[in-house]
Design brief:
Blueprint (H helix, E strand, L loop, with lengths): L1 E5 L2 E4 L4 E8 L7 E7 L6 E6 L9 E3 L7 E6 L4 E6 L8 E8 L14 E2 L3 E6 L1
Length: about 130
């Protein structure tokens, strides 16, 4: 199983980026998908989550710090998950990781819950 993330880069505050993650060798529709981020000296934190087939349709959650600015979505046919990031702030600077879990349940915020991880993509927001 492999998760390949892409789309990071350097952007000015107020700008936008779209992260993509493609999964291989995974029954994708069965898996919960999430984006986490980790800034230097900080713990890895959940940014956005979208449930797989075991969840009700539209089960999406966001960290409070990104609500209204970020949108997570998934394309089950192409085995991809996306994170559209708008109105970026310097505080969003971090390495962003996509992650997959067969069923996270109430533990979806916990990074230890996830089975598979992408390699990370750097997002840097300049002020």
């Amino acid at each position: 199983v492999q998760l390949q993330a892409s789309g990071g880069g350097l952007v000015q505050a107020g700008g936008s980026l779209r992260l993509s993650c493609v999964a291989s060798e995974l029954p994708f529709i069965n898996y919960d998908m999430a984006w986490f981020r980790q800034a230097p000296g900080k713990e890895r934190e959940l940014v956005g989550f979208v449930g797989g087939i075991r969840w009700s349709e539209g089960s999406i959650y966001y960290a409070d710090s990104v609500k209204g600015r970020f949108t997570i979505s998934r394309d089950n046919y192409n085995k991809m998950v996306f994170l559209q990031m708008n109105r970026l702030e310097p505080e969003d600077t971090a390495v962003y990781y996509c992650a997959a879990d067969l069923y996270s349940g109430l533990n979806y915020r916990e990074s230890d819950e996830y089975d598979y991880w992408g390699q990370g993509t750097q997002v840097t927001v300049s002020s």
